[in-house]
Amino acid sequence: MPNRWKPNVTAAAVIERDGHFLLIEEDTADGLRLNNPAGHLDPGESPVQACVREVLEETGFDFIPEALVGIYMNRFVRTRTGDDITYMRFAFSGKVGAHHAWRSLDDGIVRAVWMTLDEIRATATRHRSPFVLVTIEDYLRGQRYPLEMVHTDVSVFHSPFKISA
After folding, report:
1. How far apart are CA 3 and CA 160, in angstroms?
2. From CA 155, how far away is CA 139, in angstroms rounded?
3. Out of the domains of life, which is the source (predicted)?
4. Chain mean pLDDT for the chain
5. Any idea what the Cα angle at residue 146 is, between residues 140 and 150, rounded to 5°?
6. Can you list the domains of the chain with their CATH numbers?
């Protein structure tokens, strides 16, 4: 099978505080878009670790994952290039921790913003992913699974390549 299909794996956070949800506003090829704090899984990390890292990099907040909200898959065609991409998103809920206001946010991130559910629904045309609202609504319905549902084998954390000095 020469061209094996592989989805892009991402991790996203659903973070609620006082009836507001933490989103990010980012500059994309399609203009300013809203998204849950989210990003790609890097080599050598679990989906939970990726989520914690991405929240910090995109919002400046520490994140303490407490549950898996769900696993979501969608297909996306890039406007500029026509690339056909499939994403598999692991969405986690948890608590927001300390805010590190001194941190620079990831390239393209304009700001982190707290929004009500009504505000999020009203801006649906600006959502970067179809799962921005879906994951929040699943969370509000009480959809939670133990973090242990996502098992990462120890082999992920060890490089198969020897690094020589």
Report:
1. 23
2. 31
3. Bacteria
4. 92
5. 115
6. 8-147 (3.90.79.10)
CA nearest to 58, candidates 29, 90, 26, 20: 26
Taking only the tens place, the pLDDT of each residue in 103-155 is: 999 999 999 999 999 999 999 999 999 999 999 999 999 999 999 999 998 98
Nearest-angstrom CA–CA distance, 94 and 17: 10
Q: Which two tokens stand for residue 122?
A: 């009203």
Beta strands in 4-83 (DSSP E): 8-17, 20-28, 31-35, 38-40, 61-77
**What per-residue confidence (pLDDT) applies to 1?**
52
If 0-12 CB within 10 Å is exposed, 13-18 middle and 19+ buried, where does residue 163 land? exposed
Q: Is the pLDDT of residue 160 over 80?
A: no
Asked whether the whole model's pTM tops 0.70, one would answer: yes
Contacts of 102 (CB under 8 A, 6+ apart): none
Q: What are phi and psi of 153, to 5 degrees?
A: -65, 150
CA end-to-end distance (rounded Å), the chain: 37
43, 52, 57, 97, 116 from 71: Cα distances, Å:
19, 17, 22, 24, 23
Q: 3-state DSSP: the chain helix, strand, coil percent, rounded to 5? A: 25, 40, 35
